[in-house]
Design goal:
This protein has 120 residues and is an alpha+beta fold. It is 35% helix and 19% strand. The chain has 3 helices and 4 strands. It has helices spanning 34-64, 71-75, 108-113, and strands at residues 6-12, 15-20, 86-90, 94-98. The strands form 2 sheets. Strands 1-2 form a two-stranded antiparallel sheet. It has a two-stranded antiparallel sheet with strand order 3-4. The longest helix has 31 residues, at 34-64. The chain is extended and about 75 Å long.
Length: 120
């Protein structure tokens, strides 16, 4: 927007806001050196490798324990779309937001469903 224009309403966490543009500036594109790019790729590949090893481990444990997944019963479970929000009481009358930390851990099922490989 041009300088002096009123922009909005824009939805924020607290509600809606109107802004007056005080000025603009152009930014030049940030250039990334090769070492930084290489480190980012290395980190991402390492994370993927760890996730694959984790999934293989859970799938092998599921096979050892002869896990059975009842997909028809799993599909019949009713799930609410309501987000959960709770408060946790801490000492001296204080409270804090208590939200459950749930990691997505279902990628191992693909490995579990694969047929086992027999070494000749």
């Amino acid at each position: 927007s041009d300088t002096g224009q009123v922009v909005g309403p824009i939805k924020t966490g607290e509600g809606y806001s109107l802004f007056v543009v005080l000025g603009t500036r152009s930014t030049r594109e940030a250039s990334v050196d090769f070492a930084t790019l290489e480190e980012n790729v290395r980190t991402r590949l390492l994370e993927e490798r760890r996730a694959m090893a984790f999934d293989r481990g859970i799938a092998s444990l599921a096979r050892e324990q002869k896990l059975v997944i009842n997909y028809d019963k799993l599909g019949a479970i009713k799930v609410n779309d309501i987000q959960m929000f709770t408060r946790r009481l801490i000492g001296f009358g204080g409270s804090m937001t208590a939200a459950p930390l749930l990691m997505r851990q279902w990628n191992w099922i693909k490995r579990y469903q694969e047929p086992g490989q027999v070494m000749p």
